[in-house]
Amino acid sequence: MAKIPKVVLLIESSRASGRALLSGIAEYSHHQGPWSFLWEPGGLEKARSLLKAGDADGIILRDVKGVEKILAHGLPAVVVGHRQTEMSGWVNVVTDSPAIGRMGAEHLLGCGFQHFAFCSFERTPGESNTWSKIRETHFAERIRAAGFAAAHFELAASTANWSRELQQLSRWLAALPKPLGLMACNDDCSQRVMEACKLAGLTVPDAVGVIGVDNDEVICDLTDPPMSSIAINFKRAGYEAAQALDQLMKRVKSVPPRITAQASHIVARRSTDFVAAADPYLAKALRFIRDQGRNLVAVDDVARAAGLSRRALEKRFRTFLERSILAEIRRVHTDQIARVLVETDLPVNQIAELHGFDNPQHFARYFRAGKKVTPLAYRQVFGSKHARPRRSQNGDSFSQTGV
User: Fold this and answer.
1) Model-level pTM?
2) Quick one: which of 59, 121, 170, 311 could link to 8 by a disulfide (CB 3.0–4.6 Å)?
């Protein structure tokens, strides 16, 4: 009888990202295992006793304080990054922070904001925290490319002096020009920003629009109004982390040193439900496009909804958003399609029909023009690792349509 590998998991379950990682690891075990798991969310001290007893074959862990002592046991390991840069000599799980920063900027620009800011946590001793800095850098670069500037504020990672920190943050927010589009490095940071807005008497999203990262639904729903956030496919990253560990335990030599948790889409909630209030015609047009996100609408329909001639409205779009009305329609429509591809297992052909396409090939070309990949390829990258194509009533695989 083959030995069942024992795998130690030092992954927290208090946040959605950790639960998704664990779910992906479990999925791999169900398909490729079985494995026996020694899950210890309570801390490294309990884990050390397991490792000293030699009662483990591999480990997947966060790069928490003391991670070096754990890795010194020499077990095959995958390190999920948070505190520092990638650890040389080990397989690392990282987030696509450059894409995350750009996505946040694009979302706030698309809302019509012209003043911007980024909020992050300051580094603590022993932490490089480069993921936050990378997100800020790429956010600011995209904002500058659009002709604007972005302010920056660093919060203390600890809540020991939270009352004083909240006062400082609220004063900083109050002093910035409005309306302000603000991205925070993650949902925890965004939640603090939302509390500071309340203290400063700043209405969200009319005065400050806020978007976070991780799409932790519990945190996003704790805020008032609910908070927009960038979703990251941690479940797939967990699956791929387990796959890499399996290869390490089997002594496979060519194991990729990096696993990237991809940012899949933006979950827009009321914290960024703002549309260019400074220009009422543009606001009406953007609101109409957003409300019709599932439908194929024409430029003339948008102009009628805005109460302005097509030519005059087009000029406003190019002046304030630096893109055409048609480009904005396609951007919003494509983002809506992407969200359905990732969040559901509906057949691609059915998604095409729901979004106004009779021809699957036309749907594929339309989506690819916006996302640079076909709908099926997008789902394969950002969806569940084991998402399989549904079959039509005549038995043909929908993946054979090329979409």
Assistant:
1) 0.80
2) 59
